Amino acid sequence: MAVTARSRDELQAVVAEIASTGRTAMAIADDLADPEAVDRMIGCVEDTWGTVEVLVNNAGIGSSQRPLPLVDFDDAFWDLTFAVNVTAPYRMTKRVLPGMLQNNWGRVINIASINARVASLHGAAYTASKHALAGLTKATAKEVEGTGITANAVCPGVTATRLNDKRLEYDAHRLGKSVEQLESEASPLGRRITPEEVAFTVAFLAAEQATAINGQMINVCGGRVVQ
């Protein structure tokens, strides 16, 4: 397994955790906002293990990093959001598909959001980019029909991450509510979704038993969005 992010220290911690389960992992520090990063990363994996069998496009930029009304939105942040949330998954998928097609097997799993279905206030770039990622997922799925490859997306709801902490703080200030109150309202479960719940869905989609699932947007949101 290869994991990639911009932070080398955090990557090493993830690799150590994977290694503790008896599995082998590789850390690749790079920035997917750089168009050349895709070839560097995939080339490194192919040199070590050969064809990529499962691609999880998990890198993303959320509205929490710069929430603004549309009329005040930062154009540079819009461009960066699309570069990471849409163009990078497109380039990664395009890069690995030939090997998957040759082997008649593969999994492309995009991490979208419930904002691929419903809008986020003061998050125009995030909402638009996740809708675009949904379109990319469906287009990929259509092109790989009957090849042994599937392309699906997981749509997490409000998830307990450090980035979402910032969004909750922003909304708490905007709405005059406490962070704890917003957490309790995050889903019908009375809490935020956990990263482990999202990861479980990803692992399921990567399995052989999920071959019949293709082109789907799977919500993991505790029922916040029923669609």
CATH superfamily: NAD(P)-binding Rossmann-like Domain
CATH class categorisation: Alpha Beta
SSE class: alpha/beta
Separation, N- and C-terminal Cα atoms: 33 Å
> How many domains in all?
1
Rounded mean pLDDT is: 95
What is the CATH architecture term? 3-Layer(aba) Sandwich
| Poorly predicted runs of 5 or more residues | none
Overall radius of gyration: 18 Å
CATH topology (level 3) name: Rossmann fold
Total strands: the figure is 6
General form: globular
Give the helix tally.
7
Q: Level of helix content?
A: 40-55%
Instruction: Bin the strand percentage.
Output: 5-15%
What is the N-to-C order of secondary-structure elements (H for helix, E for strand)?
EHEHEHEHEHHHE
Strand order of the largest sheet: 3-4-5-6
Largest sheet: 4 strands, parallel
In short:
With 227 residues, this protein is an alpha/beta fold. The chain has helices at 8-19, 37-49, 75-103, 124-143, 162-175, 179-184, 195-206; strands at residues 2-5, 26-29, 54-57, 106-111, 149-156, 217-220.
Describe it:
The chain has 227 residues and is α/β, with parallel strands linked by helices. The protein has a single domain (55-220), classed as Rossmann fold (3-Layer(aba) Sandwich), CATH 3.40.50. 47% of the residues lie in helices and 13% in strands. It has helices at residues 8-19, 37-49, 75-103, 124-143, 162-175, 179-184, 195-206, and strands at 2-5, 26-29, 54-57, 106-111, 149-156, 217-220. The chain has a four-stranded parallel sheet, sandwiched between helices. α3 (75-103) runs parallel beside α4. 32% of the residues are buried.
